[in-house]
Amino acid sequence: xxxxxxxxxxxxxxxxxxxxxxxxxxxxxxxxxxxxxxxxxxxxxxxxxxxxxxxxxxxxxxxxxxxxxxxxxxxxxxxxxxxxxxxxxxxxxxxxxxxxxxxxxxxxxxxxxxxxxxxxxxxxxxxxxxxxxxxxxxxxxxxxxxxxxxxxxxxxxxxxxxxxxxxxxxxxxxxxxxxxxxxxxxxxxxxxxxxxxxxxxxxxxxxxxxxxxxxxxxxxxxxxxxxxxxxxxxxxxxxxxxxxxxxxxxxxxxxxxxxxxxxxxxxxxxxxxxxxxxxxxxxxxxxxxxxxxxxxxxxxxxxxxxxxxxxxxxxxxxxxxxxxxxxxxxxxxxxxxxxxxxxxxxxxxxxxxxxxxxxxxxxxxxxxxxxxxxxxxxxxxxxxxxxxxxxxxxxxxxxxxxxxxxxxxxxxxxxxxxxxxxxxxxxxxxxxxxxxxxxxxxxxxxxxxxxxxxxxxxxxxxxxxxxxxxxxxxxxxxxxxxxxxxxxxxxxxxxxxxxxxxxxxxxxxxxxxxxxxxxxxxxxxxxxxxxxxxxxxxxxxxxxxxxxxxxxxxxxxxxxxxxxxxxxxxxxxxxxxxxxxxxx
Length: 584
Fold this sequence. Notes:
two-stranded antiparallel ribbon; 584 residues; mainly alpha; Serine Threonine Protein Phosphatase 5, Tetratricopeptide repeat; single chain; globular; 3-stranded antiparallel β-sheet; RagB/SusD family nutrient uptake outer membrane protein
C-alpha cells in the first residue's frame, strides 16, 4: 500500500502530462517537454513525478470486475430463473464474453487497459528523460536518485504488467517517448528481452530506494523487491524468487518494516489503509471528486459500485462481480480454531457461541450466514440484503465502503464514485508465494510454516498431519484454496496469471463446471434481536437439492472450460490498426 497520489495537481501540470492514447498515432506526443525549460529544479521534476502516480489511478489497469469474470473466482450478475451467462439471458454480451473467454482484439476494455499501461510508461519516460537532462549537481543529490528510482519502478512495473497478460509476453518496449508520429510504429520484442528490460528498471528501484519511503504512500524498495520476486516466480525460477521474498519478509537487505496485521477486522477497511501488511496500494480519495465519474485521472474508483449490493448503493444492472459458488462454499468449509478466543462471540441476543463464519470469510465476503459482522451499518448482511431476489450469494468486500457508510451514494457525487484504496500487493501474498517456492524446492515444512502463519492470523486451524505431507498435497492446497481464499479478486490479474503459469486453468474450469451447488433457506436473528427471520434460497450448499423452495445453481464455468486457450490477451485493435509493425 505504497502508492503516492497527491491531493492536488495543478491544472498546468495536468495539461502538460495528460495524454490521450486513443489518438496518439495522429498526435505529436504532448508529454515531450523541453528539458531545458521544464527540468531546471528537482521541485519541478517532483511535481511531474506526481503525474506518473496519477496514471495508476486509471480504473482499467486493475479492472477487478473484468478480471474476476475471467478467473475462477467471480460471477457476472445474478443467477435468476435457472439462467446463467452461458445462455446469454442474464448479462450483456460484454460480460458474457469475458466470462466465457471469448475476448478478441476489438474488446473495448482490452484496448483501455493497454492504453492505460502505456500512459504510465509515457509519463515515467518523461520524468526519466527530464532527470537525465539535469546538471551534474542536481544528479548528485539524493532527491534526484529517489525520483529516478520511483520513475523507473513505474516504467518497469507497467512493462511487467503488460508482459504478464498480453500476447505471450511479446509487447512493445518503450524506453523513450515517441516524438514524431512515425516513432509510434515499433515492433514487439520477444518475451526474454522484455523481461530483461523491466527487471533492469525494477533492480534500479530495489537498490536505490529506501526500505521505507516517507510518506508511506510512495513506492519503495519493498515494492520493487516484491515485483522482482513475482517476475521470477512467474517464470518458474523458485530459487531466485525465494531470495527476494526472504528479503522482504525477513529484512535481509533493508528495513522494510512489514508485518502481518493481526487485527483481522481492519483489513480492507478505511481504518486499515497503509497498514503494516501493505506493500503496494493505489491511494484513491474523494478529495477531488467531480461530476465526471469516468475521468481516469480523477481520484475516484468505480469498483465499489460494481461489487456492492444494490441495498448498499451498488449497481442496479447485472454487470456486477460477485463470488463464484465454489468460493463461497470454500470459505464456509474452512475450519476455525475453536481455541482462538476471537472465534467465540456473544451475539446480539446474548448467546455465547462460535462465529458463524471465519474471520477471513468476514473480511473477504458478505454472505447470508455472517451474523457477526456489521455490513453497511446493518447488524448483518442477512438483515440488509435479500440474496434470493438478487441471485448473488457472496459480495466481495475489498472494493466497497461497507465499513464507513450505509450507502455508497453518500460518499461522492453519486454511487459511481469511491475513494476506497485498491490493494495490489501485501505481505500475506508474499508469505504464500514464499510457501510455494519452498514447497517446489522440497521444503514442505517451511511451506506449511508460512501458510499457517497466514491462517493463524485469521484464527483458522493449521494445515498439518498426513493430509499435507507431500509436495503435491501442499501444492494443491495452495493453488485451489489458500491463494484464492486469501487473495481473491486482488492485485493485477493475479488469479488468471496463476492459473495460467501452473498450467491448470482448463482443468480447473472443467472440474468446477462438473460441481453442483444450490441455495437453501437461512434463518437469521432479526434486527431487534427479539426473534428470527428467514432468507429463502440464500445459503450456498454443495450438491443437488430435492427441496422445492431451494434454488439449484446452474453449473458455472462450463463455457470457460470449452473456450479457454492460453490465458493471454491479444493486442488491441487500437494498436494493430495504427502500428504497421505489430499484428495478432
